[in-house]
Amino acid sequence: MQIEYRQRREQLMAKIGNGTAIFRSAPMAVMHNDVEYVYRQDSDFFYLTGFNEPQAVAVLAPHHAEHRFVLFVQPKDREKEVWSGYRCGIDAAKEIYGADEAYPIHELDEKLPQYLEKADRIYYHLGRDRAFNDTILGHYQRLLQTYPKRGTGPVAIEDTGTIIHSMRLIKSQAELELMRQAAAIAIEAHNHAQEITAPGRYEYEIQAEIERIFRVRGGMGPAYPSIVASGVNACVLHYIENERQMQDGELLLIDAGCAYGYYNSDITRTFPVGGKFTPEQKTLYEIVLEAQKQAIAQVQPGNSFKSVHDTAVRVLTEGLVELGILQGEIDKLIEEDKYKPYYMHRTSHWLGLDVHDVGVYQHGEDKPQILQPGQILTVEPGLYIVPDTKLAEDQPETHPRWVGIGIRIEDDVLVTPNGHEVLTAGVPKEVDEVER
Ligand code: GLY
Ligand code: MN
Ligand code: MN
Prior knowledge:
Layout: H1 2-16, E1 20-24, E2 30-32, E3 35-36, H2 43-49, E4 57-60, E5 69-73, H3 78-84, H4 89-95, E6 101-104, H5 108-111, H6 113-116, E7 122-124, H7 130-145, H8 147-150, E8 157-158, H9 161-169, H10 173-196, H11 203-216, E9 221-222, E10 227-230, E11 251-256, E12 258-260, E13 263-264, E14 267-272, H12 279-297, H13 305-322, H14 330-335, E15 376-379, E16 382-384, E17 406-408, E18 411-416, E19 419-422, H15 431-434
Parallel strand pairs: 1-7, 5-6, 7-8
Antiparallel strand pairs: 1-4, 2-3, 4-5, 9-12, 10-11, 11-14, 12-13, 15-18, 16-17, 18-19
This protein binds glycine and manganese (II) ion (2 copies).
């Protein structure tokens, strides 16, 4: 992998010319009092370095004669390492991670200017770490003040995102292998969850089994808080309490994905707790399934990202009209967002190092993002007949028999040269497969 990290840095450096790019590791996050969350490296930082420690800064200075890649890291410290674990230290930052030069992080302010003085731009992503933003702005300001003395130095700050996020959007073979493994583990977990679900069991029991499989198969854990939502809970898009006892006659919606080697999967299935759909559940389920299949069929190189969502919306709206939940002309209902009380989220997002991965969805209003081989997106339409939803005045009241049903079906789809591959096809979703 070190070769691939180096190739990515080279690719980035080729694009920044005489600039210097600065990347900051993710900050530590507090869970409560002095207890911290498990550390997870910033995805851009990891993508370029593979380095997973906190308190680090990576500098890429393609114009520098000797030090094109510099790492600032936590120095070795036996006492501190006893408390909070192994640190790679200065020497290994060079030997293992390929830095041309490495320094202890506390020397950042002293050493950084030499990599900026001859740069024409600073490439930096203004992030949530306000204190570090101020550090970079402080250096920039001092270099601007002293510019007349040198006649060189950065005269603009540019966002690194526009460059690196378009690189991250197209997955390499090595990335794809990790994505496949993240998918394979989640497939196993979802299949197991379907087997053990039964009336009387609690949502958290199913969550525990899913997350057990994530870990015993070598995953880092859940890619995001697992959603195990029975009955009306499925109408809350981000329901994560997972505390309810499941009843016969209800549906269970599970939205759970695994993180593996920093890459993520993201799968949703909805199925009957007691094994059989009610007629209403089945009718709505078949609409969502059809919407998902037609949306997935749109995933082909040359089609727009937007066409996937538009297709799902059309099939869902047609279905709602057929049931009498919506009334009117399809195009007009879509144009006026009349489907939104029942389908309030988007159909897709990019997937990769981040669950909602980086990369743009359109290049301005009139310029769609066109799908290309190597991109991975989710396709996740749903219908949620939320209790007490106030409908538009010109719509009839939703008949009570539909109310409280929530359904989503989500797969992870790779754009291939000839079409697409559903990476998560190993979890059944046909009606006769999810009935038991
Ligand atoms: N589970 C988060 C999502 O589906 O986007
Ligand atoms: Mn998703
Ligand atoms: Mn999901």
